[in-house]
Amino acid sequence: MKYIVDIDGTICTVTNGDYSNAEPYLSRIEHFNMLYDAENEIHYWTARGANTGKNWEELTLKQLNDWGVKYTSAKTGKPAYDIWVDDKAFNVGTYFK
Fold first, then answer.
1. What is the mean pLDDT of the chain?
2. Which residues sit opposite 45 in a β-bridge?
3. Integer Cα distance of 25 and 91 in angstroms
4. Longest C-alpha distance within the chain, in Å?
5. Which residues, in sequence order, are bridge partners of residue 96?
6. Has residue 85 got a pLDDT over 90?
């Protein structure tokens, strides 16, 4: 299976743009690492910098590596949005119940 996973609020704390202070949710990272080890594709996609235009790619990749995150790909540039409508989407609160 192919998973598209957000970063802030999903595998780490929300920091309102102060990304260097994000703290990992280790149990959630472990969950997605397990899926990766079971040969699923895990693609992280974040909206970091979508509103400001600042490039957060270097910090984001460093954090993922420091936190032991396994992934197929990791990208910045996800569009900022208020509502995402998709027939396959899960809200993080629902997914991790």
1. 94
2. 75
3. 16
4. 36
5. none
6. no
